[in-house]
Amino acid sequence: MKIIFNCLFFLTFSTFSFAQEGSIQKQLQSLSNEKDPIVLKQKLESYVNSKQENGIIVAVNYYNRTGMRTKADSLKLVAIKKFPKGDFSYSNAIEKLNATSDYNEQLKFARTVSTRFSDRDLSILYGKVANEAAKNKDCRTIKDAIDKIKDQSYRYYVIPSIAETLLTAGERNTPCIQELLQQLLKEYKSHLSDKMIKEQSPNFLLPDLKGNQVSLASLKGKTVIIDFWATWCKPCLESFPGMQRAVERHKNDEKVVFVFLNTAERGSDDPKPRIEKLLTDHGYTFTVLMDRRNAEDKKYEVSNGFGVTALPSKYIIDKEGFIRFKIAGSSGGPAFINEEIKMIVELLNN
């Protein structure tokens, strides 16, 4: 099993459709697996010269993934000119909006973008508008932006970002904005409830950083939050301040256990010193377990057994030993991550 950095992939394609993501990811994987340099070159040329923007998207992301940033950026400019209402043009418009500092100019530019790209999912655009409106305590615009993405596919990818801004503001929110925040959190909790599954969890027996063996079976009767991560995974590390808040929030709840399962490390050196330094430097009070790599097939046993294909990934196990949630990637910032874990615990324990 190969761990794919899906969280970065999503950020790259956040302005594209779900159908495109799956197709493009398969084509990227095919390019990555190609061993013949001549065939690889031919495939890339066909994508670069494609009459469909999807082909150029594949090429750009392949170049980015392999460190050829300049080539990727040049090809993006070609795509923007060739497809003025295409995905790269929309993404470029979002980047320009992000670079605009004046609030009124942001709103004016957002209206222009929404008109120009009216036939597509505008969740990312209105998520940005809502965040800027929150900073300016403009409750009416926040509500309007949220309403405009009511039926959009990416709604639940931007709600965490909006909620993070509002949660961070805390007591500085107006009563109107605070009411909107509670509505957003209630809606997101309902969304999580709809995503609940029930699959029998594999068992495991793994060592912690001190060599003590910990089994999942020994934790039966508790809600177990397993966070699959690696030291090279930037989004994993970015999620840790929020996870630390969640650990602190539930530290006196004997029914909740957090396990940070290190897996898919790169290189041949022992990652334990890096992990221990990370925990010490940031004051993280995590229980870290070390996944085992099979000597024959080189697969990491536990992450492979759970079917993990992206880092970070959180698998939440209920007290009966069933997997109830699988969450790939990381949404929002520290405040929202903490809130999301609280919602999950409430859904399983209430």
Name its key features.
alpha/beta, 3 domains, six-stranded mixed beta sheet, globular, disordered N terminus
Structural features, described:
It is globular and about 60 Å long. A hairpin with a 5-residue loop joins strand 2 and strand 3. The chain has helices at residues 6-12, 18-33, 37-48, 53-65, 69-82, 87-99, 103-116, 123-135, 139-148, 155-169, 175-194, 234-249, 272-282, 301-306, 334-349; strands at residues 199-200, 205-207, 213-215, 223-229, 256-262, 288-290, 313-317, 322-328. 56% of the residues lie in helices and 11% in strands. The chain has 3 domains: 18-83, no CATH class; 116-194, no CATH class; 199-349, Glutaredoxin, CATH 3.40.30.10. It has 15 helices and 8 strands. Helix 5 packs across helix 6 and helix 12 crosses helix 15. The protein has 350 residues and is of the alpha/beta class. The chain starts with 5 loop residues before the first helix and ends with a helix. Strands 1-8-7-4-5-6 form a 6-stranded mixed sheet, covered by helices on one side.
